[in-house]
Amino acid sequence: MTDEDHLPNVPDSGGAFNSAHARTYAEGPPRQVPGFAGLHRMSSMLLAERVPLQGRLLVLGAGGGLELKSFADDHAGWTFDGVDPSADMLRVAEQNVELHSARVRLHEGFIDSAPMGPFDGAACLLTLHFVPREQRLDTLCQIQRRLAPGAPFVVAHVSFPQTEPERSLWIARHVAFAGINPANEERAKRAIATKLTILSPEEDEALLRGAGFSNVSLFYAGLSFRGWVAYA
Length: 232
What we know:
This protein has 232 residues and is α/β, with parallel strands linked by helices. The chain is 39% helix and 19% strand. The chain contains 9 helices and 7 strands, in the order αααβαβαββαβαααββ. Strands 3-2-1-4-5-7-6 form a 7-stranded mixed β-sheet, with helices on both faces. α7 crosses α8. The longest helix has 13 residues, at 36-48. The chain starts with 18 loop residues before the first helix and ends with a strand.
């Protein structure tokens, strides 16, 4: 194990994970995200409340394929379009969804690379904290425009207060939970503070409403992570 294995998963300067990150990504979320399997299970359940048995789902940030595999395992009739900017991560996703490959289409790029739909539901898990603030609202608007009226959207990412001293405290908690090597703790804190775009929960909810989503409800809170379900 290298020093990089003790650092949080963050993309390169182009906003995409490189091949080294892709090879080890699957090990990160279960360790770094409280209740990771439960987050997938809850997301699948909330989507299924409105997505029909033969529904079509959009997954933004699908590289790695972990949520695609979880949703496909749960719902044999759903088809998926997954979008991610990293070709390396999409190759990992292909491997993880191999048993469901006939129902999954993967697209390299950002949200504007996704088909227009309409989709019966959408998910964006552990992704939006990589999207710059100035692109966040447009990204959410583009998801909303691709959804059928009333379709569910589940989203979860790092979200905590952005005023000090709370911000530094939450970054320290995030690093502590991830089990970062003590020798790399300060480096990890700097990476989170400078390479992730973290908003407060209030800002995140306001952006969802600003993008046209309604009935925004918090369904998941795991230390430094928050998750919401909302409707187009």
